[in-house]
Amino acid sequence: MNHLKLNQTQIQAVVDQLTSQPDGVNRLLEIAMNSLMKAERNAYLEAALKGNKANGYRSVSGYGVGDSLSLQIPRDRLGGFKPTLLKVMKDQADSLNELCFELYAKGLTTRDIESITETIYGQHLSKSQISRITSSLSEAMQAFRERPLAEYYPIIYLDATFVKTRRERVSSEAYYIALAVLPDMTREVIGIYNAPTESASVWNEICVDLKNRGLKQSDLFVIDNLTGLDSTLETHFKAPIQKCILHLKRSILNKTKKQHRPEMVSDLSDIFQLENRDDTKDALLKRAKAISIKWRRYYPHLKRLEDADWLSYYATYLSFEYDIRNMIYTTNWIERLNKAFKRTLKIRNSMPSVESVLTLLSKVAIDMNSSTYRHPVSRFQKSHLFK
What we know:
Pfam family, one: Transposase_mut
Structural class: alpha/beta
Oligomer: single chain
Strand content: 15-25%
Protein name: Mutator family transposase
GO molecular function: DNA binding; transposase activity
Number of domains: 2
Family: Belongs to the transposase mutator family.
Function: Required for the transposition of the insertion element.
C-alpha cells in the first residue's frame, strides 16, 4: 500500500482544520497519542525475540481538554509491551484522585466534585466513584493517626468536638483531639480518636495509645473540664494540668442573672489577673474565696471557688514564666483547630461513617501540621518554662 506523504505546510493545514472544530483539540490528541503508542509497539516488536507480534488493541478513556479521550492501547501476543503513555495516564489519574480528595476535604460535596471534574476533564465521576477515591486515601490518613511520636512535648492540649455521624442512625459523636506544642513553638496534631460519647474510659484508652506510640513526658496538659480527664492524666503522666479559665468564666456567667453579669465579669477578672506579672497562686485563691463569699447567697454553686484543690487546676499557669501564660491559660489553640474541622464538615448535614470523619479530620490536621504556627516566644527553654 502506498502511504500519502504530506509536507509540513500541508500537515499544518490539516491540523488547523481539525483544531478549528469544537472537539478538534481532543481528536488531535487522540490521533497523536494513538500514533505514538503504535509506533512505540512497532519499535518494541522489532527489538523483541522472534515469535512475538502485534495482538490488536484495548480501549481505554483518558482525560482531555473538557472532554474524555478514546485511546487504543496496543497489545502484543506475549503481553510484555507497556507503552510509556500508560504511566502518564496513571499519573493523570492519580492527580485526579488527589484533586477529588482535596476538594472533598475542603468541604465540597460529591455532587460539587462531579460537576468540577466533568467541566475540567470531561470525565464524569459518579458519586460512588468519588467515594471510592476518598476511601482509597483513608489508609494514608490512618497511618498518620498511628505514626510514632516524640518522647517529649512541652505542652499538650486535649479536647473533644462533636460531629453528626451515622452508625445505625445519625447522632452526635465525640472526636478526641490531642494537639502538641513542639520545642520550636510549632504545633502538631498527635492524636485523633472517636467514641460515641465522652467518658473517662475513653480518655484512658487515648493516654495508653499516646504512650504506646512513644510519648513519655510533657511539661503541661491544657484541658477543658472534660469528664474524668484530669484524674486519668494524673494516672499516666507526671505533669501539671491547666484547665481552661475561659470555659470556667463562661460556665459561671451562663448561670448568672443578666443584671449581675457586668459585676460578675469584673469580679472574675479580679480573680484571674492575667496581666499581673507578679501574681501568685496563693493570692489568686484568696481573691476567689472573697468573691465566693460575696456571691454564694445568690449562687450557692460558687462556693466551689473556695475549694483550693479544685481551683488549683485553673491556677497552674501561675507556675510558669509570664511570657507563655497567655498561651496556656485557655484551650484557644486547640479550639481554633476545632473551628477548622467544623468549616470542613459544616457543608454536610451528617457524615456517612466514623471512618469518613476520621479521614477528613486527619487531612485537616496534616494540612495544619505542614503550616507554621508559632507563638511570639521564639523557642522553649525547658529550664525556663517554670518560674
